[in-house]
Amino acid sequence: MNWDDETATAEERIVDASAEGDDQAVEAALRPKDLAEFVGQEKVRQQLDLVLKAARQRGATADHVLLSGAPGLGKTTLSMIIAAEMNAPIRITSGPAIQHAGDLAAILSSLQEGEILFLDEIHRMSRPAEEMLYMAMEDFRVDVIVGKGPGATAIPLDLPPFTLVGATTRAGLLPPPLRDRFGFTAHMEFYEPHELERVVCRSAGLLDVAIDPAGAAEIAGRSRGTPRISNRLLRRVRDYAQVRADGAITREIAAAALGVYEVDSRGLDRLDRAVLTSLLKLFGGGPVGLSTLAVAVGEERETVEEVAEPFLVREGLLARTPRGRVATPAAWDHLGMVPPQAAGPGSTTGNGGTGQPGLFGA
């Protein structure tokens, strides 16, 4: 396996946490239907259970809910569970799809009483629509502007009580007036390996795939703390087991299958390893500027910064410093390489062997 080949784009990565195409259809089949079935996020589940039970006992709509966290952690699944627990229909849309206040007014005016409106990537909604949403959430009313210029007239439109469930991967981009109108906010954390093992075993059962605990643990350990990635890896391992083995997934089968797809024991893929390998081999572990590192990897600066770096930083393999990117001791250890300081006289240094501090800095 050659880890130094040209790296894959974000869309091609098996460890990409976004859902596109076939992934969305498979996810729908694997999603839990109620809170009791939902794995992980214990605090969020307990808090949300109280909110929904209290609303049902009062015979009222639930408070507006804001879910934040990285892609693939279950925000969409929880929104559907909220609708199921409240026995209400759900309408699904996204922030980028609402570019004008009229788009939002059309959606809001067609809602039924008690309906759940799920707004994904809510931080990407246009500002005019966002301002209309303030009044809709608080007063269940919107003002529809008819006409233009001095002759424009605002017509108030009453809305039935509804519950807005907003999801965002970047809660910091939400303006305070919008954030404050949510009655319940929750942050989704990355999953622990034992939680992902439960996810893998449950999904394997739904897919009618035989898997032993060691095989589930192997997949969970390479899933980057994300259930969506666990399910994707499980499907690829299932394919490998079906074609090259007897169909059952063991630790050995899982490890061999994920080796084919270039996902290593910590969940790093070809792009992640290319970034680390360039940082260690070409620049002695850094510091090195982001643009220089991107050129060395053969990727765009944004791809390295937004696709590869977040996981490497979270895993403690890479650090961002004012002078540039620096590899940690764990990165050297993971790739089986020896840091220059430990390699003895004549070895390269953190500045590519030049002896000039900051040559590759940011």
From TrEMBL:
GO terms for cellular component: cytoplasm; Holliday junction resolvase complex. It catalyses: ATP + H2O = ADP + phosphate + H(+). Keywords: ATP-binding, Cytoplasm, DNA damage, DNA recombination, DNA repair, DNA-binding, Helicase, Hydrolase, Nucleotide-binding. Mg(2+) binds at T76. Residues 265-362 are annotated as: Head domain (RuvB-H). GO terms for molecular function: ATP binding; ATP hydrolysis activity; four-way junction DNA binding; four-way junction helicase activity. Homohexamer. Forms an RuvA(8)-RuvB(12)-Holliday junction (HJ) complex. HJ DNA is sandwiched between 2 RuvA tetramers; dsDNA enters through RuvA and exits via RuvB. An RuvB hexamer assembles on each DNA strand where it exits the tetramer. Each RuvB hexamer is contacted by two RuvA subunits (via domain III) on 2 adjacent RuvB subunits; this complex drives branch migration. In the full resolvosome a probable DNA-RuvA(4)-RuvB(12)-RuvC(2) complex forms which resolves the HJ. PANTHER family: HOLLIDAY JUNCTION BRANCH MIGRATION COMPLEX SUBUNIT RUVB (PTHR42848:SF1), PTHR42848. Has 3 domains, the large (RuvB-L) and small ATPase (RuvB-S) domains and the C-terminal head (RuvB-H) domain. The head domain binds DNA, while the ATPase domains jointly bind ATP, ADP or are empty depending on the state of the subunit in the translocation cycle. During a single DNA translocation step the structure of each domain remains the same, but their relative positions change. It is found in: Cytoplasm. It is an enzyme of class 3 (hydrolase). Signal peptide: none annotated. The gene is ruvB. It comes from Streptomyces laurentii. Its main location: cytoplasm. Residues 1-21, 336-362 are annotated as: Disordered. DNA binds at R301, R320, R325. Residues 61-192 form the AAA+ ATPase domain. Residues 192-262 are annotated as: Small ATPAse domain (RuvB-S). This is Holliday junction branch migration complex subunit RuvB. ATP binds at L30, R31, G72, K75, T76, T77, E138, D139, F140, R181, Y191, R228. Its EC number is 3.6.4.-. Gene3D superfamilies: 1.10.8.60, P-loop containing nucleotide triphosphate hydrolases, Winged helix-like DNA-binding domain superfamily/Winged helix DNA-binding domain. GO terms for biological process: DNA recombination; DNA repair.
